[in-house]
Known about the structure:
Layout: H1 16-44, H2 62-73, H3 76-86, H4 88-92, H5 94-99, E1 100-106, E2 111-116, H6 119-140, E3 147-151
Parallel strand pairs: 2-3
Antiparallel strand pairs: 1-2
Amino acid sequence: MTAQGPAPKNPEPSGVDLARVALRAAKEAARARGDAVQQKKQARRGGLRSGARADGRDPMALGSAINRLISERGWEAPAAVGGVMGRWPQIVGDDVAKHCVPERYDEDERVLVVRCDSTAWATNLRLLAPTLVARLNEDLGHGAVKAIKVQGPSGPTRRYGPLRAPGSTGPGDTYG
C-alpha cells in the first residue's frame, strides 16, 4: 500500500519481458513467412516434393493423427465418454455391469443414458446415480456428466403376422 493508493496486482511487463515477447512474435512471423516462400518455390519447380527434412506433409502415427482430429473437431468430451463406456465394468463393478449397460451420451444436456435388464436393477442404479456422476466427473473432468438417466427393460416388439388387421395398433386397440 502506497500513499497514493493500493499497488497494482499485475504490473505491466517491461524491459526484458517485453523484449522476450517481441522476439517470440518476430520468430513466429519469420517462420510463417519462410514456410510460405518455400511453398511458393516448390510450386514453381513443378509441385511439392518430398525432401530429407521433416515438414507438415510427412506421415503421422495413427494415434497422433486421431488425437489431432479429436482436438481439431472439439470431440474431447464425447471421446472421453466413449472411453468410459468401454471401461464401464471397471467404473461400476462387475455385478452392476452385468445388469446395466450405457446406451448413449447426450452431449448437449450432458446426460448418460443407461438401460437395465430389470426394474429392480433400474431402481438400484437410480439410487447409485449421484455416486456414479461424482465418480464419472472425477474421471472425465468436472461437469462432463450432469445426470444419469436410467431406463428399465423395454417391452417386446410388436410382431406383424398373417392374422394382423391392417391399421391395428396391437392388442391395446381391442380394449379401448
